[in-house]
Write a structure and sequence with these properties.
Layout: E1 7-12, H1 43-59, E2 61-66, E3 81-86, E4 93-94, E5 97-98, E6 101-107, E7 122-123, H2 143-153, E8 159-162, H3 169-177, E9 180-183, H4 188-198
Parallel strand pairs: 1-2, 1-8, 3-7, 8-9
Antiparallel strand pairs: 2-6, 3-6, 4-5
């Protein structure tokens, strides 16, 4: 990443450090949820690998948006603003019950500051447009939600970087919005999924542009 040209937005949904599988010993998972296979999804991994990589990406971007998960969000650098994605259909469980509100951390200046302000939080935006149920990834984000984030954090023609690309939802959202995108992913099978998704027909989300 230090060798990349500057980008306009970092938009990423990295691992959360909540135990979605160990590389070797098959860490316990509820409801048969798929595991990551290239690393151990632990708080230590977030602290030692994910956050340093995010900081590098952030340093080459005008602005950044990260959905960090709630449990280890406080390990991230202090954001300039905070929002939430409220998902009434959420089934993730925390120590105090089901998790329905997911944090969004904002860094830098809103690209529409002084123009048309958008809300910093959203709700719902779960969808079947992305074929999300058929994506072989432990924690894919809905395409509608990711598209909302990409539209909020960038303008038409700008470049978005996702250093934890996963199955390519950010890249797919960027394509649908007319943005350029760069994705980085450690696991080859997710790259293959992302390529297939980018070959699909562009979907019109009727987003507002300024």
């Amino acid at each position: 990443m230090p060798k990349l040209e500057p980008v306009d937005l970092v938009l990423t949904d990295p691992p959360y450090g909540v135990g979605l599988g160990e590389v070797e010993n098959g860490q316990a998972r509820e409801k048969g949820q798929m595991a990551y296979t290239k690393f151990s999804d632990t708080p230590e991994y977030i602290r030692n690998v994910v956050i340093p990589a995010f900081v590098i990406a952030r340093n080459i971007a005008k602005r950044s948006i990260v959905t960090p998960g709630n449990r280890n969000a406080w390990q991230y650098p202090s954001p300039d603003d905070v929002g939430v994605w409220y998902n009434p259909a959420g089934n993730g469980r925390g120590k105090w019950g089901f998790i329905l509100a997911h944090l969004i951390l904002y860094y830098g200046v809103d690209p529409r500051a002084g123009k048309t302000a958008m809300a910093s939080s959203t709700w719902g935006k779960s969808d079947s447009v992305s074929g999300i149920k058929n994506i072989s990834h432990p924690c894919p984000k809905p395409l509608l939600f990711t598209t909302w984030l990409a539209d909020k954090g960038s303008l038409c023609g700008e470049t978005i970087l996702d250093p934890f690309m996963g199955s390519g939802t950010t890249l797919r959202a960027a394509k649908d919005l007319g943005r350029k995108a760069i994705g980085i992913e450690i696991e080859e099978k997710y790259c293959e999924i992302a390529v297939k998704r980018l070959q699909q027909e562009v979907f019109n989300f009727n987003t507002k542009e300024s």
